[in-house]
Amino acid sequence: MLVIFTLVWFSNLEYRKLVRPDEGRYAEIARQMLASGDWITPRLNGIKYFEKPPLQYWATAAAFKAFGEHDWAARIWPAITSFLGILLAGFTAHRLFGPTAGWFAAAALASSFFYLVIGHFNTLDMGLCFFLQLAFSSFLLAQRGSASGEECRNWMLLAWAGAALAVLSKGLISLVLPGATLVFYSLLTRDFSAWRKLHPLRGFALFLAIAAPWHVLASLHNPEFARFYFIHEHFERFLTKVHGRVEPWWYFVPVLFAAALPWSTLACHATVAQWNDPGDRGRALRFLAIWCGFTLLFFSASGSKLPSYILPILPAFALIAGAFATRVSSPAMAFHAGVTAILAAVALALVHRVTDRADADTPVALLQAYETVLLAAAGVWLFGGLLAVGLAYRRRIRGAALSLAIGTFAMGMLAMLGHEHLSPSNSAWHIAQQVKPMLAPNAPIYSVRYFEHTLPYYLRRTLILVDYRDEMDFGLTQEPHLGLPTVAQFELRWRSDDDAFAVMTEEMRLELESRGLPMQIVARDTRRVIIRKPRPDKQ
Fold first, then answer.
1. Which residues on neighbouring strands pair with residue 446, listed in sequence order?
2. What is the Cα–Cα distance from 119 to 107, expressed in whole angstroms?
3. How far apart are CA 231 and CA 341, in angstroms?
4. CA–CA gap between residue 526 and residue 450 (Å, rounded)
């Protein structure tokens, strides 16, 4: 089963084209890092980009160097870290709660909806999630009463290393979550014994040895780095609405319910039922519950909210659910499986509404093709849920759990595979293939009041931004010569170029055409059009 699971987990990384914006962004930063040889200063589209630390860029660039610039190589780091997280969940639950809990926790994490999906997309969230999981899992293993002094020290050093690698994955949040969880755990349970086993001197030295060098080097190479990275990207992002990701305070409650499916209600039941468990088991479960609660509250208080922020809760949820596997009753398991079956039935009934979301960017024909796959995915999910209900009533708890896991896993994999039907709208791969044969090495490519994150990656070229700043505002402020501030300047440059290309929306193209800008349409898709300056020998 492990061999089959491994093959399936890594099977779809190349099948789907990279989608906008995150997958294109992080693939392109890694590509430019490898092309330039500068592993200190990340650049997006050739422009300094300090929003996140570089661990995943390094890993992806290394994969590109070893295997070539393929889509599967761009996604390999999230896929590997998510896969290792599943193995770690199984190992940790086995050591803390027993062998049945181990396989149950691994199955629960592998089939948790958000974990499955985000593990197959090129974003930074999965790397952060894995290293935070490594930190709290190692901490819990170090705190066991049966752990020897040497075991405790080694597990705690691994916990410190995990926290440091989490910092290199997505920033200082990796210190806040473990540290605050330990403080609240101690205050709420009045258990301060863990503080005596932290090995703070050696641990913090190891933490600094891993996390500090890049931050120091980035500051030395870029004097503007520290203020933007530490103040803007951490404190201002959390405390203000500067990024425009404003949601109500309760936003993450329904998001977490969807993210943890099909284990949402089971994990909540398990948390309450096991809160007063005695000994090492109880201490570990209470720490995990407080980890989940603090993470949810922390991000709920933030002025910037995205669904993927609550991903670090899911490994802890899986451990809590795994520990509950040996004591959940048949009626309770049937109830939890029934919730999944009902949701799957609702999904199956509503799939036909997906075409209601059609618009000019995503035509109805693309959504109709995706609808067919979603019907199959919802049907598989419903079958898995109904089978789990039946098995639970027959007191076959392990079979019910496996049915839930396999049904949800198959549903998620099918939904992701089917998403490729939308790639003409969500990825620049198709339009890049149209224009790449025409590109001369020295011909500039302008991006006019528009930026498509996957286009530089698929063209293997940077674009000259015209009257566009957005997330590149900081970098363009430092190096303004890398862009053109106005469309008027672009028009002057365009008229003087011997050969040039420009990407823009159709509305922008019509505006420029009305002003007499010479152009030839060479490629288009549902979202953008690429024009070329007519050459004298072709007129």
1. 464, 502
2. 15
3. 46
4. 14
Report which of 474, 482, 479 is spatially closest to residue 229, judged by C-alpha positions.
Answer: 474
For residues 472-508, one letter each, b for 16 or more C-beta atoms within 10 angstroms of the residue's C-beta and e for the rest, the string is bebbbebeeebbbeebeebbeebeeeeebbbbbeeeb
Q: Which two tokens stand for residue 31?
A: 């590509």
Residues 6+ apart with CB under 8 A from 170: 52, 53, 124, 125, 127, 128
The pLDDT tens digits of the residues spanning 484-501 come to: 999 999 999 999 999 999
Q: How does strand 47-48 pair with strand 529-532?
A: unpaired
| CA-closest candidate to residue 252, choices 286, 291, 290, 292 | 292
Q: Are 125 and 308 in contact (CB under 8 A)?
A: yes
Distance separating alpha carbons of residues 234 and 172, to the nearest angstrom: 7
How far, in whole angstroms, is CA 6 from its chain's centroid? 20
pLDDT band, residue 71 (cuts 50/70/90): very high
- Which pair of tokens denotes residue 468? 């566009």
Would you say how long the chain is, in residues?
Answer: 539
Report CA dihedral (445, 449, 454, 457) to the nearest 10 degrees: 30
Q: Whole-model pTM above 0.90?
A: yes
Q: Where are the alpha helices (DSSP H) in 303-453?
A: 313-323, 330-350, 364-393, 397-418, 423-426, 429-435
Question: Exposed/middle/buried for 238, CB within 10 Å: 0-12, 13-18, 19+?
Answer: middle
Q: In sequence order, what are the residues at sequence separation of 6 or more whose Cβ sits closer than 8 angstroms to the Cβ of residue 192?
A: 186
Q: Which two tokens stand for residue 14?
A: 């190349």
For residue 28, CA distances in Å to 47, 60, 69, 380, 419 come to 11, 10, 10, 36, 21
| Spatial CA neighbour of 71 closest among 9, 23, 34, 8 | 23
